[in-house]
Design brief:
With 963 residues, the protein is mainly alpha-helical. The chain has 47 helices and nine strands. The strands form three sheets. It has a five-stranded parallel β-sheet with strand order 4-5-6-3-7, with helices on both faces. Strands 1-2 form a two-stranded antiparallel ribbon. It has a two-stranded antiparallel sheet with strand order 8-9. Helix 7 links the parallel strand 5 and strand 6 (188-194). Helix 17 (370-386) runs antiparallel to helix 18 (391-398), helix 22 packs antiparallel against helix 23 and helix 39 (800-813) runs parallel beside helix 41 (836-852). The protein is elongated. Residues 13-191 form the Orc1-like AAA ATPase domain.
């Protein structure tokens, strides 16, 4: 506990080890900031957590930490949790950030924060919430991470102090507990204090965060008898005898707060601190806390007590004028009451009041009679609104007011919920709206309150959202636009909860009763979209025909019409109509714009339009659209499922282009985001399925198997259609593992599910081709027929990549001389396609087949080209296969002319030498101390500089002779 001695020096008793940890961290932090170098063997920043029961000196320890940090020239940011304000979203975050940015002009702040300004600004109280969809919680958390990181770098060395973290609001505490491990990699010292028994479950990370004491907080213990004696004599002088000091320790149980307060009472009463007065200490100690404190305060007068109650209701950083308004007293009385409470060691401060200690604030608040407390909160809500502080500031008080059918209360809670949800705190908004519903609202407003409550629960509790929205539809609704909005949102949340059939049925019922033509078209568009993703749709061909008739006659005048046209493009892709037809509709859908982040629309249709271009062999166009979509998501702070889908499908585009290393990087980024969203969500299925496909293409079957096991990738498969089809990918994995019978069963089941729905495009789902491979040994005739049927479908879609892949796999299940013809045609098609990996496979297969046919000279060129293409793709397994084929054919890997190697950098030369020696990309990465994507880029540069048609000597590279 801190005591200010007569010399003004701060004294802390028995906290030497705690202060040593603080001093070490500060010295290291300041040394780093001065010379810019990182001390060897030490982390850059630090986290220190102090845990202890109430009154053990956490606040005093943090005050001393701030004092020492300021003395060393550190920037210090302070926030304190409050028992009364822990339901105010981002209260602690605002306390930390606002003082640091108070002197920064708004224009400069906008420039510095860039796109983060509109995302984190409302949460931190820096700007009003913007119109449009709010950021998702993860996007906001990323923005807050960026903000604190920026401040740590710009205001280094930065010391962030958080007192009473157990009372911090849930939004701030969840963010800070997730951010805390980053402190060690920044010029930042984060010091936190809390009561461990009161720390909420959503902040349990604080109990195990790495810090100065290892994997635990620094626990504070009560003071010893000797320390209490020193504290007493520091105030009362050496005349305090041993018996008196011993009794002080006994009645306070070594609690520093109580010991300091008790000593102050002895001093104020002028008692002689010896054994004769020791018997009085127990009564004096009782007056320090609880009922004793209340009784002592009551002696100051009824007006003063009411003012203290008003301060306790308001919480922290109390405005005297606001407290006076709540207490209902005048300006002169306010000053007198504040003076009396300061002298009584209840309050401190002048222009802004604070309770001397959180224990005092809690005792005063709990002493307020129940009915009076409710009335004071109601008065506080009015005072806050009248002071211009807004509905959000008043809402926490309205939560404490008894329901009374007050329309004003409902209005304020709804306004607070709108502000809060747009600031990125939907849970707080949900609390406000639930309370508004209990008021209750007027009957004509009940539906809209239920709708707003459902929207606030959307991201965190989708099942609850469904219940609220269905309840809203049961209410009398006089506004048709409100009813339509409820139906749209209900169908969206049902669909995103993997309840696509219910989403479609909800829209179908409303379509039957809707009289407005444009509304009916919009609902039809929504229904078409969800039906397109349904794995259990009863009559997909009929839906496709209805969609085609409607889309063909729509000119694309508005977003709804463009959505329908975009869905028509995707349906044409799935059904293997000519790719030119699909592309024509996709281009029509884009005329006039097709936003990815429309507030009341999903992003599914823009994604489907982009994928239409991908499957039509126009991956560049697809990447352009995905890049625009990602920019839209990030600018709005949507960094959850939306961004996971975008990164994952961008990885899929790279995969189909044969850029496997880049694809793996993107899909792992998407998977990391999907894991934050939650397991078994559509985003998770997409990411895991695509990762498995990429790993198989890279020849890493064991890793693909481990990935499937780790993420539970298998039956039961999702009710929604995902890309690539999860069941087909699982069958492909079984095939790669050599489990041909299991693979055939899985792939045949996928076909029975997809074929009746008209999903027959092998470019989208090549289940037939993999089934043919799985059945080739046991049922070769059936396998060949299945493969030829896939070729027929691919020719109907008429893209070079689809036809080329189908011909390659058909060659693998065919026999005789036809195999060479099929592979030659496959290569011819794939050379005109963007499918680099498929071309590499076809070239290696053609070379191998020519070798087996006794034509080794003819085999050389496709094998060399296939090897080079496989290296550029990052397909390590295919690289090994090509090298083995070259070795069996008596051919050495293609070498480079020494004159050509002159233009290579040293790292490119080293990479080329290792690949000529037959080393895989992983081994080359180890040798060069880099990663596989870098190796691929190095080798791509080699082939670009020297060409790919050379087979001369390479003395400079010293190649190894083939096996």
């Amino acid at each position: 506990m801190v005591h200010h001695g007569t010399n003004g020096k701060r004294t802390l008793f028995e906290r030497e080890s705690e202060l040593a940890a603080v001093d070490d961290a500060l010295s290291e932090l300041c040394a780093l900031s001065r010379d810019g170098s990182e001390p060897p063997g030490r982390p850059r920043g630090a986290l220190i957590a102090f845990a202890g029961r109430a009154g053990l000196g956490k606040t005093s320890l943090l005050a001393e930490t701030r004092h020492r940090a300021a003395a060393k020239g550190c920037t210090v940011a302070l926030a304190r949790g409050s028992d009364q304000e822990q339901r105010v979203a981002f209260h602690v975050a605002r306390q930390l950030v606002q003082p640091l940015l108070a002197s920064v002009p708004d224009a400069e702040l906008r420039e510095v924060l860039g796109s983060w300004y509109a995302i984190v600004g409302p949460a931190l109280g820096l700007c009003a919430p913007r119109d449009g969809a709010p950021p998702d919680p993860q996007g906001l958390r990323d923005g807050l991470d960026w903000m604190l990181t920026h401040l740590a770098v710009q205001r280094a060395p930065l010391v962030v102090v958080i007192d009473d973290a157990h009372w911090a609001d849930a939004e701030s505490l969840s963010w800070l507990s997730a951010f805390a491990p980053r402190a060690e990699s920044l010029p930042l010292l984060l010091v936190v204090a809390y009561r461990p028994e009161e720390l909420p479950s959503h902040a349990a990370e604080f109990k195990s965060l790495p810090g100065r004491a290892g994997q635990r907080p620094i626990g504070l213990e009560p003071l010893s008898a000797g320390a209490v004696a020193r504290l007493v004599r520091d105030v009362l002088g050496t005349r305090a005898d041993d018996a008196f000091c011993r009794e002080c320790w006994a009645v306070t149980a070594g609690n520093p707060f109580e010991a300091v307060e008790l000593t102050a009472k002895v001093h104020d009463r002028g008692l002689t601190p010896d054994e004769s007065a020791a018997h009085l200490l127990r009564d004096l100690a009782a007056a320090v806390k609880g009922s004793g404190l209340v009784a002592r305060m009551e002696r100051l007068g009824a007006t003063t007590v009411r003012f203290a109650w008003a301060c306790a209701v308001l919480g922290t950083s109390i405005s005297p004028s606001l407290a006076a308004a709540v207490a209902g007293i005048g300006e002169r009385e306010t000053a007198d009451c504040a003076d009396r409470l300061r002298r009584a060691r209840v309050l401190t401060g002048v222009h802004t009041l604070e309770f001397v200690h959180p224990l005092i604030a809690t005792a005063v608040y709990r002493a307020i009679p129940g009915g009076v407390r409710v009335a004071l909160h109601g008065q506080a809500a009015w005072a806050v609104i009248n002071a211009g502080l807004g509905a959000s500031a008043a809402a926490r008080h309205l939560l404490e007011v008894h329901p009374d059918g007050d329309t004003w209360v409902v209005q304020q809670l709804r306004a607070a919920a709108r502000e809060t949800v747009r600031a990125g705190a939907p849970d707080a908004a949900r609390r406000y709206l639930a309370r508004a519903l209990r008021e209750p609202p007027p009957w004509q407003d009940r539906a809209v309150v239920l709708y707003e409550l459902g929207c606030a629960s959307l991201l965190t509790e989708p099942a609850t959202t469904v219940n609220h929205l269905r309840a809203a539809l049961e209410e009398p609704i006089t506004d048709p636009a409100l009813r339509h909005g409820i139906v749209y949102r209900l169908s969206q949340v049902l669909a995103h909860s993997d309840r696509l059939g219910e989403a479609s049925d909800t829209l179908a019922r409303e379509i039957r009763v809707t009289t407005e033509p444009r509304v009916r078209v919009r609902m039809q568009a929504e229904q078409f979209m969800w039906d397109a993703f349904r794995a259990d749709e009863a009559d997909s061909p009929a839906r496709s025909r209805r969609l085609a008739r409607l889309a063909d006659r729509l000119p694309g005048r508005d977003l709804t019409e463009r959505y329908i046209i975009g869905l028509r493009a995707w349906d044409a892709t799935l059904r293997a109509e000519p790719a030119t037809t699909a592309v024509r509709h996709a281009e029509r859908a884009l005329v006039g714009g097709l936003g990815w982040a429309e507030e009341d629309r999903g992003f599914e249709v823009p994604v489907l339009v982009a994928l239409t271009f991908l499957y039509a062999d126009r991956p560049g166009r697809a990447e352009e659209l995905f890049a625009a979509g990602i920019a839209d998501f990030e600018s709005r702070g949507w960094r959850g499922a939306h961004l996971s889908f975008a990164y994952t499908l961008l990885a899929y585009i790279r995969f189909r282009r044969g850029r496997l290393a880049e694809a793996e990087d993107f899909v792992r980024a998407g998977l990391r985001i999907a894991e934050r969203v939650g397991p078994k969500t559509p985003a998770h299925w997409y990411a895991v399925g695509i990762l498995i496909e990429i790993l198989l293409a890279r020849g890493r079957v064991a890793e693909a198997t481990r990935t499937a096991q780790e993420y539970g990738f298998g039956a039961p498969f999702p009710a929604a259609v995902v890309f690539p089809d999860a069941q087909a990918v699982h069958g492909e994995l079984l095939l790669a593992r050599g489990l041909t019978k299991d693979a055939a069963a899985e792939l045949a089941a996928a076909g029975r599910r997809l074929d009746p729905r008209g999903m027959r495009n092998p470019a989208w789902c090549p289940w037939q081709l993999h089934l043919a491979l799985a059945e080739a040994d046991d049922a070769p005739d059936r396998a060949l027929a299945t493969a030829y049927d896939a070729v027929r479908r691919a020719r109907r879609f008429a893209t070079a990549s689809a036809v080329g892949q189908a011909l390659r796999i058909t060659a693998e299940v065919a026999s005789g001389s036809v195999r060479v013809k099929l592979l030659e045609e496959s290569v011819s098609h794939l050379e005109r396609s963007p499918a680099g990996y498929e071309l590499a496979r076809a070239l290696v297969c053609l070379g191998a087949e020519l070798r087996r046919a006794g034509r080794p000279k003819d085999a050389a060129d496709p094998l060399y080209r296939g090897l080079e293409a496989a290296v550029q793709c990052g397909a390590d397994g295919l690289v090994e296969q090509a090298r083995d084929e070259l070795a069996v054919a008596g051919l050495r890997p293609r070498l480079l002319h020494s004159t050509e190697t002159d233009q290579l950098t040293s790292r490119e030369r080293a990479a080329a030498a290792l690949t000529v020696r037959g080393e895989p990309a992983g081994r080359i990465a180890e040798e060069l101390h880099t990663d596989e994507p870098t190796v691929v880029r190095l080798l791509s540069a080699v082939y670009r500089k020297v060409g790919t048609d050379h087979s001369g000597l390479a003395a400079a590279l010293e190649p190894r002779h083939p096996r």
